Amino acid sequence: MIGDCALINQGYKLIFDLKIWLEKNGEDEMRSTHALTLDSTTNSGLSGVYGLYGTSEWWDNIEKGNVETYIVSGVIDDVSKGHIFVDENTMITIVSDNAEDDIYEGVLFTNESLKSECGNLYSKGNKIVVFYILDELKDKDTWNPLIKDKIGVLPITSKIYIKEGN
Fold first, then answer.
1. Alpha-carbon separation of residue 68 from 19, 27, 71, 113 (angstroms)
2. What are the residues whose beta carbons fall under 8 Å from the beta carbon of 115, sequence distance 6 or more?
3. What is the Cα–Cα distance from 106 to 144, expressed in whole angstroms?
């Protein structure tokens, strides 16, 4: 697994860290996610088997390896110009280092300050590493477009690192 320090030493910049973001801005998101997880009348949402989203129990299970993780690394090949389904500069295409398929990923800007500070890094030719947490869903038959051979999990973006291309 690629370590945070190794990426920083290679010139990558941490663009997004879910744990930090949730601590500062995620109260409403966590509250609504917890409510859906705990709602036994629906098959929607996370299972909560490893703790409620964003809680210390959840993070502990991730750190202990009880929750599967997934890493995508590659080069940004395209940035959306906007069309009927996608707003301008909100989607990128990553040509993965480890797969034959291109991977489409939303661009995460949690606030305008981050967008102005880091938006230029989401540029064609820059290298990117995205860490995902694969949390289990209540609906075990749910398919996701990111990890096609895994069903019943939700890939949650945990960290994003970007390095300007040479």
1. 16, 24, 10, 32
2. 109
3. 14
Condensed to tens digits (0 to 9), the pLDDT of residues 114-140 reads 667 777 787 889 999 989 999 999 999
Both tokens of residue 153? 């999990």
Position 164: which residue type? E
Give the distance from CA 93 to its chain's centroid.
14
pTM, two decimal places: 0.84
Query: In whole angstroms, how large is the CA radius of gyration of the chain?
Result: 16
**The two structure tokens encoding residue 92:** 């990128």
What are the C-alpha distances in Å from 25 to residues 15, 20, 21, 29? Answer: 15, 8, 6, 8
Contacts of 30 (CB under 8 A, 6+ apart): 22, 52, 53, 54, 55
- State the Cα–Cα distance between residues 152 and 88, nearest whole angstrom: 30
Domain ranges of the chain: 4-163
